[in-house]
Amino acid sequence: MNRQYRLTYFMILFITALLPGFYSCNGEEGDDEYNGVELTGTGSLTLQFNHLFGGKPLKYAPDSFFSAAGDTIKITKLAYYVSNITLENEAGVKTNLNTYHLITESVSSSKTITLSNIPAGKYKSISFMLGIDSIRNHSGVQDGDLDPAYGMFWTWNTGYIFFRLIGRFGKADKPISYDVGGDKHSNVFNFSLTGNKVKSNQVQMQLNMDLAEFFTGPNMINLQQDAHEVHSGTDTQILPRLHQNMKDMLTLTNIQ
Amino acid sequence: MRKFYLPFILFISVACWLSACQKDSEVKDEVPPTPVDTTKPFKATPYPLALPPGWPSMFIPADNPLTVEGVELGRKLFYDPILSQTNTMSCGTCHNIAFGFTDNGKQFSEGLKGEKGTRNSMPLFNLGWSEKYITTNHKFFWDGGAADLESQVLGPITNPIEMNETLANVVQKLQQHSVYPGLFKKAFGTDSVTTKRLIQAIAQFERTIISFGSRYDMYMVTKNRNLLTDQEWRGFELFNNDVADGGADCFHCHNLSSPFTSDFQFHHNGHQSADEGLKRITGNPEDIGKFRTPSLRNLLFTAPYMHDGRLKNLEEVVAFYNSGAIRVFPADELIRKNPAGLNLTPQKKADLVAFLKTLTDSTLLTKTHLMAP
């Protein structure tokens, strides 16, 4: 009697354990798949940055765009640093890949960051910095994408320029020249990966940077009144406002 | 039976060889793209740095040790006008060894477009100790804008009113040069010219500019008081005493117990000027008009004085600090605490100037290893 009971109990347990497996075989999506991004093997991760202005693909001058404040804006240069790409796994352990990337609109290869040898794992979020962390920012001159020869470096006040937007505005084509830098002005973007159910050894993510947000954000920039140049990380007039606006510039649009 | 072994052994050896190759390529894949060939460890000759007796060690960054080849390359670069846009101006143009590495007695230096700057060319010596004892990121330039000696090099090269050249151009010119790629290879292992190597080499040379040998240095080593005259000792006493004690109160900022005659801080010394100084770098309103406390070594060669070279000679410097007019906000508390000035008699002023001249190291000007190669 006792033995029989135990056997039944075991059978029920066994079937219960198998049930989800059977069910998932029939369904379109496997419920046993991690509800996030699962990298298999030592996989690769590709981040593709797409540049937009008000939802339209960004094109350099002579193409023009309209800001929310009604300014006509032409862009001639967009460049920025992406660093400290960090993956967080399901247990909450964060892995900083410790890489630094200069992205420039005119260099199409720079807009795709491919990172290989990513440890296999189930990842629930990804974050990265738009800018350079203060430690590296004050470690003097570096090589690679951080070579000051790219011009993204203040030579009179040691430090990297995190984000550069140059262009013209209005009928008179007055210059716009924003250099965002200084330790206080990096932005960390954190994107949840849950709900995606992607399992692959080559994961690709699409990110949109919309420059209209730079001029709109929470702080509307009106170029008729506001400063249209900044070249110092210590500026207190427009830089803190732009820095805040930049927090809304990036969206993660697709993972596959 | 034995002949069957041969192909087997061959197979094993080829397999080993192949796997060895594979291992090599795997290692290469993991190494980030860098011009240094890691398969052959490169080592340049360590530079035999001679520190003056009793001096502390200087700061040398871990990734840029002094090497004979690096210092020699840096010396050549320091004196080469190739670093400027028109190939007409070198670091040595405004940092002339004959003037203690300053600009020939000029108040302001002229860039290659003929435009003048707003600050006096700084003397270059004992820089490795400034880097060591300034504890913030504000280590070089009058306003502390450079975080380290290597980064400092970038300022004058790229400043439109100085050498007005882009780093990309400099690197390209050096890479295409008949001699430089070979020198970079000797110093860094490959003939690749990069911004980082360029500034590392110049910083290496600059760290070897050590000034020691003044009469006051000799006194500090031997404690022989006869090395200074009675008048110079009277100046020494003025230098090291508070105003309340009849002194000139110089020692708070220009500390004579170390060979560097500086507290390695930034102060507003009471000058009136539109130059924001350290505030331009930190953005902190309290830093307005603050500049680095310079060394008092080699004053005889480095006139004129102050960040903007406003004072032509040492008599003017002493008259400046003697005045009560400068002793108002935003001047440093150390200046404001004596609102009536120093009240120095003409004799005391002369004594003070006499002492300042004992800090002169004439041997610096004749060191051939610091001159243009």
Characterize the structure shown.
- The complex is a heterodimer of chains A (256) and B (373).
- Chain A has 256 residues and is of the alpha+beta class.
- Chain A folds into 2 domains: 1-32; 34-255.
- Helices cover 16% and strands 44% of the residues of chain A.
- Chain A contains 4 helices and 15 strands.
- Chain A has helices at 2-26, 134-137, 212-215, 239-246; strands at 37-53, 56-57, 65-66, 72-89, 94-96, 100-104, 112-118, 121-130, 153-154, 159-169, 174-181, 187-192, 198-210, 229-230, 250-255.
- Chain A has a 15-stranded mixed β-sheet that branches.
- Chain B has helices at 5-30, 68-78, 91-94, 127-133, 149-152, 154-158, 167-175, 180-188, 195-207, 215-222, 230-239, 278-282, 314-322, 333-336, 346-357; strands spanning 266-267, 291-292.
- Chain B has 15 helices and 2 strands.
- With 373 residues, chain B is mainly α.
- Mean pLDDT of chain B is 91; it is low at 6-34.
- Chain B has 2 domains: 68-210, Cytochrome c-like domain (Cytochrome Bc1 Complex, Chain D, domain 2); 215-364, Cytochrome Bc1 Complex, Chain D, domain 2 (Orthogonal Bundle).
- In chain B, 36% of the residues lie in helices and 1% in strands.
- In chain B, helix 2 runs antiparallel to helix 8, helix 11 packs across helix 15 and helix 13 (314-322) crosses helix 15 (346-357).
- The longest helix of chain B has 26 residues, at 5-30.
